[in-house]
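chain below, 295 aa
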Amino acid sequence: MVKKITSIDDLSLTEIKLIVDRAIKLSSKPRSIKAKTIKNIFNLFLEPSTRTTVSFELAAKKLGHNIFNINFDKSSLSKGETFEDTMSTLVNMKPDALIIRDRKEHSPIKIFEEHKIPVINAGDGKNEHPTQSLLDYAVLKKTFGNKKITIGICGDIKHSRVAHSNIKLFTKLNYNIEIISPNYFVDKKSVSKINNKIVYKNNLNDINNLDVLMMLRVQKERITKNLNSSLNKFKANFCLKNSHLNSKIYLMHPGPVNRNIEISDEVLDSYKRSLILKQVEMGVYLRMACLEHLL
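prediction:
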């Protein structure tokens, strides 16, 4: 059976736990684990990325696979070739798996349905970013074990693919979820289709009940109206400062961080319960586990 990870919905809870447990095991003994059969993996990134593209490359190499990085500037898309023609070209080179980041929603699942090759969604527009959510869960499980936690997600929910995947995943895990966001950055109707029991808050002044606070990047490239006004209002009312936090709350952010918009310098540089760099580290091992699952 050809497998895919285009959405959190592609994975059962059992599969999620197997992938995450494998990532945690790999992270406890960080070394290369050579696969029995070497595969050819295409890493197609049509939007900018540091963490995700490098972690997939490292993950593939640690497993002994061949990985070929392709970005927009190096592809024929930059010369005017259509997306469909580019995909036909790549698929006819017979990759064993395709990792894709695209500004268009749902392109990973369309590629899978048309070409029936293993596909991992590395972020599709505002839709989903499933491997980011899986690595977030791996960090949380390593921190809390199987404890049922309360997690707050703060920021630009509406335009965040990370938020959508995490809400799906944390709902599957039966976590308590609170969304902390101004009305202009959240579509409650859309969120309620995933989970209608989520608690909403419109400020950071009442978060002492949280085990974890996940801040999200303001998606400046996806906001088409009133960007400067939204940024200024968000910065004034939702930029995380030391005064908002107690010493018990763990802090997460998928990166990159807009300093002093989502998180102040004082928090980002010195907060002792930050898990942000743990997320970066876990990204490699989680993506190794995803490639093992897929291949």
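The beta strands are 4-5, 40-45, 66-71, 97-102, 119-124, 150-154, 176-180, 199-201, 212-215, 250-252. The longest strand covers residues 40-45.
thats it, cya
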